[in-house]
Structure formats: structure tokens, C-alpha cells
Amino acid sequence: MALRGQTPDAITEELKERGLTIGAVVSNDVFPNTPLPIEEVSLETLRQSVEALLVFPYRLTQLLLPPMKLARRGTFVFITSARYLQPEPGFSVATSVRAGTTAFALALAKEAAPFGIQVNVVAPNYLYSEAYYPRARFIDDPAGRGEIASKVPMGRLGKPQEIGELIAFLASGRSPFTTGQVVNFTGGWP
Question: Which of 163, 117, 120, 115 is nearest to 23 (CA)?
Fold first, then answer.
């Protein structure tokens, strides 16, 4: 079921209006990432990234956590980034903000665990997507495939279905003792 709400407050208000409770939250927030040297990044771009990638999931969590605590169950899975493992020039905004969301999720895991609520992070890099690793360049083109193979021990980009299976498992609640974990979905990189 799709929700009309586009802000954390509107989402939770709509859930209340419809009489819906949430048992699992997958936070997969996106924001355009234009690689730039640090001195060329505008503070407005940084602020917008923080708002989209850290403040939005933080606020949504604030609103959805109390009913989960009352029910003494629930699951959060945050999709962030594994770039923190080996930061690259030009990616200071995405690397630092995504790392902030990872740190938030780990703090949340400690607070939520006594209530039976799981919180985990999936941190991808080298995952196929048209936004970051377009097919024409990194799958169809032999030079692009070679570039990926030289960096990723698996020799290829991760597939959306593969990360989907991991997220589905973490959101399922089938392993309730698993919480506060960062699962790097990177094909063995770095």
C-alpha cells in the first residue's frame, strides 16, 4: 500500500488516519550526489544532504518508535553506504552524511534493543543502479566491467535482487537477536 505523505509527520499522520501500525521500517533515502572537492561543496548542498539523508530518517524514527516500544517489537533497516570504509576524493558529503546515519542507527539499536526492536544497517557500494553505476558504462562496456573487476573481489556489481534478499531477511524479524549490525554489501571491497 502506498502512502501519500512525503514528510515524516505527514506519513505518521496518514498511518493514524488509516489505522495502520508499522512493524518494519526500511529507510532507503536518496539524494543527488555530485562529486566535488571539499572546497567546492556549497554549504546549502551539505545542508540539503543532511536534511534528506539524516534528519528525515531520524524524525521518522522518532515518530514510529513509540508505538513499537509499546508493542515491544519492530524492525528498522537503514540503507546507508560502505564508502566510509575507504573514502574517495570528491565524495565528502555523501560519505560523511551516510556515516552519520549509520552512527544514528547504531545508537538507536542500543536504545531500542530492551524493547525487542531490531535495528540494522545495510551499507552497499558497487551496487548496480543507473544513478551510480549505469549499465551502459559498467555492465555492457568491457572497459567498465574491467574497472569494476579490478576493485571488487567478486568481479562484478551487486544486483538489486541480492541486496533486496538481505534487506527482506533483516526486516523479517526471523533473527531477533541480530541487532546493531552493519552489513557491508560490497562484494568483498575494499
Answer: 117
Q: Identify the band that residue 23 occupies on the pLDDT scale cut at 50, 70 and 90.
A: very high
DSSP state of 74: E
* Helix (DSSP H) and strand (DSSP E) numbers for the chain: 7, 4
User: What pTM, to 2 d.p., does this model score?
Assistant: 0.94
Distance (Å, rounded) from C-alpha 40 to C-alpha 66?
A: 41
Summarised one tens digit per residue, pLDDT across range 39-77 is: 999 999 999 999 999 999 999 999 999 999 999 999 999
pLDDT at res. 132 = 87
Q: What single letter denotes the amino acid at residue 16?
A: K
Gap between the Cα atoms of 138 and 162, Å rounded = 18
pLDDT tens for residues 158-187?
999 999 999 999 999 999 999 999 999 999
Taking Cα atoms as reference points, which of 31, 45, 42 lies closest to residue 80? Answer: 31
Cβ 158 vs Cβ 132: under 8 Å: no
Q: Rounded to whole angstroms, how far apart are CA atoms 175 and 118?
A: 9
Contact residues for 165 (Cβ-Cβ < 8 A; gap 6+): none
Specify the residue for cell string 526486516.
171
Task: Please report the DSSP string for 138-149 in residue order.
Answer: HTSSHHHHHHHH
Q: How far is it, in rounded angstroms, from Cα 134 to Cα 74?
A: 35
